[in-house]
Amino acid sequence: MAKSIVKEGFSNIQEMYDALSEINRINSKKNKTMRAFCQVYGCQQNQADMERIKGMLKMAGYEFTDTPENADIIAVNTCAVREGAEMRVLGNVGAFKKIKEKNPDLIICICGCMMQEEQVVLKIKKSFYYVDIVFGTHNLERFPSLLLKKLNGQKRVFEVLSESKEIPEGLPVLREDGAKAKVTIMYGCNNFCSYCIVPYTRGRERSRKPEEIIKEIKEIANKGYKEVTLMGQNVNSYGNDFEGGEKGKNFALLLREINKIPGIERIRFISSHPKDFSQDTIDAIAECEHICKHIHLAMQSGSSKILKAMNRKYDKEGFLALCRSIKEKIPDIALTTDIIVGFPGETEEDFEETLDVIKKVRFDGIFSFIFSPRVGTPASKMEDNATKEEKQAHFEKLLLVQNEITYEKTSALVGKTLKVLAEEESKEKEGYLTGHTDTFKIVHFEGDKSLIGQIVNVKITKARTWYAVGEIVK
């Protein structure tokens, strides 16, 4: 594959490990078990970042607790995608004030996407005086050095970078899911959809070297993981920042290389932008046995007018043509999507266009949201004449149409025996396990927890809208 722009010899990594060693030395002198409470908001990329934060804390000598009252350090990784999530984060951080009053030695650390917003950082400095450490999305590897500064007596430590051109490799990671692993293949986004804050909080697209990704996945396979999810804000543009090579082909090449790794039985990826979904990628999914036959393809709207206002760079017919192309090449594919209801300027006719696409494509499932303006994005300044009641009515109608389709697709599984990755004990029924099929259908089935991490044959016996129930076939 083409040469990456990522530079060698990232000096912060050695500094990170030196800091972790010194923190561990400091903690070992204390007559107690040092504990960390970790809280994460938002997307799977944020969850992957938290796995690295936990990996650092583990190396620094911390154990983990589910209650902030028992913690010596609280680490919160934030999300800036929706204003409501931002308000919840600040509300929860506010609740830590009383805990710190009882335990003045408690260290409170806030990081992630929200910290890339200048107004949020200023608010924390002024109103959340009990927060000790703040850093953003571009200097995750600096966390141990910032923590060490705090432990050495610095009152408050703030370090937020506006961008990062280098990708640090070799960060420790603590994966708690024994069945599935998340692997980031790229950071940032170049698309600037008019409603999205991500390019401002995550920066421009930066791809990891393929050899580093392969190395990490081989290590994951050696630890017994069966499934890996490749992550990026737009995985389809992976490698477009490499020197040389043909744009649009690098992601498909990466998929084919990962498909060869022994032990990895399932490969998934998120997120996919329709404008960059190439025929090479479609062919790779069709031809590689370990790539799951499920694609999450974020449509956002079925109206060409609204798609243009969103700056999505495709129209309704282009999206439908892509879906047809995918289904022709991979007939058993499952498609899911994202839809925003009530985008500024959306009329009844625009909404009907979205329903038309849903009926034609027949998605297996959707993630739908009522539009929430984010300060700093072009969409937040667009004129919006629709009422909350109108948007809510459209939202409910959308779900009604999609739920009927989803139930039909789930019902079609009854009587079939499918391979299901046992992922966790069921939260619905004692003695049951929960897992996903290759096509990302949720299945509950009776089984011992010793099966977690294994792929088992399950005959589907009952169907609900969003999940199926089955029994193991030995």
Task: Tell me about this structure.
The longest helix has 24 residues, at 388-411. The chain is an alpha/beta fold and 474 residues long. It has helices at 12-28, 44-59, 83-102, 118-127, 143-151, 198-202, 210-222, 250-259, 279-287, 304-310, 316-329, 348-361, 388-411; strands at residues 35-40, 63-64, 73-78, 107-112, 133-135, 157-159, 180-184, 186-187, 206-207, 227-231, 266-270, 294-296, 334-341, 365-370, 417-425, 432-437, 442-446, 455-463, 467-472. Mean pLDDT is 92; it is low at 1-10. It has a 6-stranded parallel β-sheet with strand order 2-1-3-4-5-6, with helices on both faces. Helix 8 runs parallel beside helix 9 (279-287), helix 11 (316-329) packs parallel to helix 12 and helix 12 runs parallel beside helix 13. The chain has 3 domains: 12-159, Methylthiotransferase, N-terminal domain (Rossmann fold); 180-411, tm_1862 like domain (pyruvate-formate lyase- activating enzyme); 417-472, OB fold (Dihydrolipoamide Acetyltransferase, E2P) (Beta Barrel). Helix content is 35%, strand content 20%.
Please describe the structure with a list of short key phrases separated by commas or semicolons.
OB fold (Dihydrolipoamide Acetyltransferase, E2P); 3 domains; 5-stranded mixed beta barrel; 6-stranded parallel beta sheet; Rossmann fold; alpha/beta; 474 residues; 13 helices; pyruvate-formate lyase- activating enzyme; single chain; disordered N terminus
